[in-house]
Amino acid sequence: MTRYTAYMKVAVSIPDDLYEEADRVAVGRGMNRSALYSRALRLLLAEEEGEALTKMIDATCDGQDREDLAGVTRADLIDTESWEW
After folding, report:
1. Residue 31, SS3?
2. Residue 41 domain-assigned?
3. How many structural domains compose the chain?
4. Range of the structural domain that residue 61 is part of
């Protein structure tokens, strides 16, 4: 009988100082290395998705006709960074 798990084991190489610092953080947070590395990777991937979304929004606003008041307002808010999510 074959047994499947929801986890994939991988081997990666990282600098010794990074490994030691990650170990300290994991111990300090009461988590194992796998949990720490999984969390760090999820945060990085979420950041990447956010950057992709920002690029899509920027491309949409760049394509707005400047005669279109609503389009100008959206583009101007983004250009001045005077808006928040």
Report:
1. coil
2. yes
3. 1
4. 16-80
Q: Which amino acid is at 34?
A: S
Half-sphere exposure at residue 12, Cβ-oriented, CA atoms within 13 angstroms = 13
Nearest by Cα to 14 from 29, 33, 32:
33
The CA distances from residue 40 to 45, 49, 72, in Å, are 9, 14, 38
In tens digits, the chain (85 residues) has pLDDT values of 566 668 888 899 999 999 999 999 999 999 999 999 999 999 988 888 877 777 777 777 666 665 665 555 555 555 555 556 5
Tell me, yes or no, whether 40 lies in a domain: yes
User: pTM for the whole thing?
Assistant: 0.55
Residue 33 belongs to some domain of the structure: yes
